[in-house]
Amino acid sequence: xxxxxxxxxxxxxxxxxxxxxxxxxxxxxxxxxxxxxxxxxxxxxxxxxxxxxxxxxxxxxxxxxxxxxxxxxxxxxxxxxxxxxxxxxxxxxxxxxxxxxxxxxxxxxxxxxxxxxxxxxxxxxxxxxxxxxxxxxxxxxxxxxxxxxxxxxxxxxxxxxxxxxxxxxxxxxxxxxxxxxxxxxxxxxxxxxxxxxxxxxxxxxxxxxxxxxxxxxxxxxxxxxxxxxxxxxxxxxxxxxxxxxxxxxxxxxxxxxxxxxxx
Amino acid sequence: xxxxxxxxxxxxxxxxxxxxxxxxxxxxxxxxxxxxxxxxxxxxxxxxxxxxxxxxxxxxxxxxxxxxxxxxxxxxxxxxxxxxxxxxxxxxxxxxxxxxxxxxxxxxxxxxxxxxxxxxxxxxxxxxxxxxxxxxxxxxxxxxxxxxxxxxxxxxxxxxxxxxxxxxxxxxxxxxxxxxxxxxxxxxxxxxxxxxxxxxxxxxxxxxxxxxxxxxxxxxxxxxxxxxxxxxxxxxxxxxxxxxxxxxxxxxxxxxxxxxxxxxxxxxxxxxxxxxxxxxxxxxxxxxxxxxxxxxxxxxxxxxxxxxxxxxxxxxxxxxxxxxxxxxxxxxxxxxxxxxxxxxxxxxxxxxxxxxxxxxxxxxxxxxxxxxxxxxxxxxxxxxxxxxxxxxxxxxxxxxxxxxxxxxxxxxxxxxxxxxxxxxxxxxxxxxxxxxxxxxxxxxxxxxxxxxxxxxxxxxxxxxxxxxxxxxxxxxxxxxxxxxxxxxxxxxxxxxxxxxxxxxxxxxxxxxxxxxxxxxxxxxxxxxxxxxxxxxxxxxxxxxxxxxxxxxxxxxxxxxxxxxxxxxxxxxxxxxxxxxxxxxxxxxxxxxxxxxxxxxxxxxxxxxxxxxxxxxxxxxxxxxxxxxxxxxxxxxxxxxxxxxxxxxxxxxxxxxxxxxxxxxxxxxxxxxxxxxxxxxxxxxxxxxxxxxxxxxxxxxxxxxxxxxxxxxxxxxxxxxxxxxxxxxxxxxxxxxxxxxxxxxxxxxxxxxxxxxxxxxxxxxxxxxxxxxxxxxxxxxxxxxxxx
Lengths: 263, 787
Fold this sequence. Notes:
The complex is a heterodimer. Chain A is 33% helix and 22% strand.
């Protein structure tokens, strides 16, 4: 690590102020940032920890019926406290990383980083969630902008994520054998208005909605409805752990499995 | 009733108390007064000409004591290679110079270029980034076949990337060719035994220390064999006489072979400590371990098995390309030759065998012994080609093996080694029982009902352990002896300290060696202390690898203990006024045979050190003896393994559902420790079969340089094992009748897993899939199913 200053504000306003410094960097649970710093691949002037801001932690049912999760809430807390409110989301949180990762890593940190293989972006996009920052509300469809890119401005903090709760939902994850991030993960959410399907881990463009499957599932919510569909390998990630063809294949298989689990 | 102490008891591992409570003392726990810290500047490119190293900016940075480069090491030796292989034309292998710090060229990513020593680790690292190495990048050669087909030269002065072209047994070559030409059936298989990163839990650490007052140098290091490091570094690299050099390997957190070798960092920090007259410490980061710890395996092989119409093996011919990496690591040349070719007979009566190995230099991390070392590579190709042959000829895979089993001993193989004892039918019988092979059909139907494929893979293995008879290995090119040593020191109050040349880096010697002494003398295990790992207080020993500790080190200890017993009997005879021929030792008590006259162990020990009533004219006081043991043969552990997998036909994901291992390790000191050794070996073997791969891109950059991409086996990747070692044919030539168990699991398990997956695919109708190269990752299995 290179030397840096460290601040741990207790209010959002103080955090915003601290992040205004040049090369300041917000720190959630640090599950990506700390290894990056240890390898000297980043050199922030200041780390601003968001974990001591009380209003950014916790899970509750909001007045509009959605599930609200504070941006600094660790995965383990979501896994436990969202279990009765949004079981599919809680289950996803409980499958991220390992116990150590889940007790430190936060939902806001994961979404701001937007790793193309992270699990949370699939849930957020499939649920049509809203990302609430210190300055505005961003719809999930507008938030993800490709690998490691989001709509967040420099210094903008994810304060809360609001999830509309679907009638039925499930996440099916096929883990990459080494990192156990999603080699391909599919979140399926069935609302009265239709079905949303979001895929993580597979595309070079990061998390995406599989519109063709959404259409098919909206008229017939069964695994059978997607078995006949096919996904093009064009634009899929190809690496040691899977070719674009394999990932394209997994998108279909995991979608069918998610539907099966949700039904 | 199972025994509660001594040989055969599952005594709890006494060392685990400190390991499990975080109170072990590892090399990184050693911090010396005035200690400075080292950081290495390493090559970021795989191949290049080193035009110059500018250290001026780094040297001026805060806290920096000195920056060393290759120039500073011109006056010392290179890292030595401990084994010289002679090729099939009678010529010695090509042996490049291996400088401590790169000089002239860099040859792999991670090759050390400079060493920065500073007051703190952070300052050293900061300054290392300010060292400017001027490197003219050259095309890298990564693929072995390209390397020998006129690729860029890794070592210009050698004129070739072919280290050696080894034939074994060269005299059999034509007879083997002829047998294969004339055979009823020949099965051919081309396969890759992929490169593995050892990944010991504890990264390597070295602390050099120099005392100007006494002119004594000490190296604390993560080693499996401190005496070997002392000899290699002292005599060949730095020119420090052994009596002025002490090497200490305290608690060591796993090695798997990777901590046998003498590494550049050890010599560099020792050199720096002597130059600066300050202790100098280096601790590898995990990223550094990935590009500097000697890696394992990396063979590309074609094997042909000739059979008669009844499935009897007639001849085996193999051709293997073995990757040496950029330099010859300490024992690298011996691994694909004498630890590999000599095992190609396996458990079978194949009369004619010819093994050809081409060792190749590439711009990759050096490759050397890794758990099993040559024997897993031999076992894998042999047991895979047998399985393929059985399928091609329509013979049951167990039956074809039984038809060819060696069944009388001693057995002289056509590949030099002679097996002293074994019973391969018995281990196979035991395997079929503990694996519940009879119940496979039912489990198959259950899997089918869930839409899953299921397969059963069975294979055998043999290994040569108890390494090794010194006169034999000397003839084969070893530049070291492979005996072991022990000093048994009895204190005046009866406590016993054993100083062994064996080293424990997880094996539990402190427990099992004490059990042997407890059994021999009849004192409680708690009265016996085992000391290892420090050249200052242990006799010259060769360390721990090749499953040799109990077979060779244990034998040395038994010898020393027998000397103690013989002397103690003389003392007892004096005290009891009897003839020493009439003295019996049992349960810690010396008795005159046929009488009730006795004296206890403690009284005899006291008499030895307080010799008031003692035969001083005939016997020296004291009770301390040293013995060396040089084995007369290898030991030959063998066994049979069964693996049952489920394969998800939609994703290609393989799940190991059941795994059974029936091993013949000869006599066993501590069954629980043996279980643990087998469990760990199986985890590594299953890891190789399903998960682990070391990938370089065409420029020589390591693509799997962290756990984000290098898949280590985790607990939930593994089944509950069924392990049995009740089939015992004791070794005929060492005093304990032991064979060794440390590597068996890693040797025997990869073919079982692959055989099982191929079986599952065939049962699922995909009979076109005859082989998949390891690791059998979901994507590879899926791709094979699509072919």
